[in-house]
Amino acid sequence: MNVDEFISLGVQNEAKGSLLVKRFVLGDALESMRIVDKHGIRAALKCVGHFYNLIPSEVKGKKRSEALLLLLQDDSQPDNYICMTKDTRDNLRVRLGDTVKVYPCESVKLIQELAMFPIQDTIEGIQVLTREEVDKDFGGIGYDDIGGCRKQLAQIMELVQLPLRFPALYENLGVKPPKGILLYGPPGTGKTMLARAIANETGAFLLVINGPELMSKMQGETESNLRNAFEEAEKNAPSIVFIDELDSIAPKRDKSHGEVEKRTVSQLLTLMDGMKSRNNVIVIGATNRPNSIDQALRRFGRFDRELEMGVPDKVGRLEILNIHTKNMRLANDVDLEKVASETHGCVGADIASLCTDAALQQIREKLPQIDLDSDKIDASVLASLEVTKDNFDWAIKN
Ligand code: ADP
């Protein structure tokens, strides 16, 4: 089947009723295609019947989102490019320039007559999301929101994504997938973000435990809270238990003074030892101080894999800058490479706030032109808003 050039046809303006079908059985990918703007799309329904090469296909986007679409060949499109409407892109949670995979979906029958009913989520194995849920979810963090972590992401694929999604790979070889991973590095390097992205991208249930919060709760309840969290994770597997600031829960037992800490470390050890690898739960611990964690927790079968989330280099900073300015209107004089060179030592969180500061400075500059007594802002002022090189220079200095 030749699928060099296609147009995907979302049924326009009907997106409110469109379904996102998860956990579909997939065939082999036909082709990876890059998304371009919707230019060239013809009205779907009009075309049906006029094109013999209309192919029901499944398009896979990010975060395991999938959509069934009709693909249509269009000779005016370049090789390996696919057009799709904004609704379709939103449903697939992809943006212009992203790559999607297109699969044949030959089991789809030709529809002669179609009746539409309100959505009812009663079909087993099929998850129907409403538009609001999709919108809420769309803001979810994915791997491409994390910059400067290519090496770590490749390792995450092997250590977390594969075991959670395909436990059979490990079972068949007779090895146990890792149970615990320790993310370590200075604050603001994206450890929490990474855990959220893994959960979104794998579709796993995420349970976040904040170390200091857990310890400050009612005395005597810390252990049972921890136990409940692990039970909840097992019930909802595949899941990820993310323990932020693990060092506050599990400090070295010989150094910790409190009984509570000692009991909590033992409880965590017991819970991790009791976890069966086939239960499909992975524990990710994050810390700024890996050396202050109880050694017993870092042994085989516990947090035995370690991943450093370090301070990004210039290339990493540029990636992070690109991510945080993606939706910003930038003036032509902004040179992000130069900004990356001038922000040595900054971590992801610093770069995120630098971008916000630069944008706020632009608003500050425009304030004198805004009539604060009016409800509306002049269209010409809105049109002139763009974050400039000077705004970035100001943000770097302050
Ligand atoms: P940590 O858990 O390591 O302290 P977080 O994940 O909480 O750091 O990061 C805080 C914020 O900083 C994030 O919400 C994000 O906006 C930004 N950030 C941090 N690291 C990165 C990164 N590598 N890429 C993009 N943004 C980042």
Name the ligand types: adenosine-5'-diphosphate
- Give the number of helices: 15
Poorly predicted parts? 1-32, 36-54, 125-138
Number of strands: 11
Basic shape = globular
What gyration radius follows from the Cα positions, in whole Å? 25 Å
Name the beta content range.
15-25%
Mean pLDDT: 76
**Quaternary organisation of the protein chains:** single chain
**Cα distance, first to last residue?**
58 Å
Characterize the main sheet.
6 strands, mixed, barrel
Helix content: 25-40%
Structural class: alpha/beta
Keywords: ATP-binding, Nucleotide-binding, Repeat
Family: Belongs to the AAA ATPase family.
GO biological process, one term: retrograde protein transport, ER to cytosol
GO molecular function: ATP binding; ATP hydrolysis activity; polyubiquitin modification-dependent protein binding
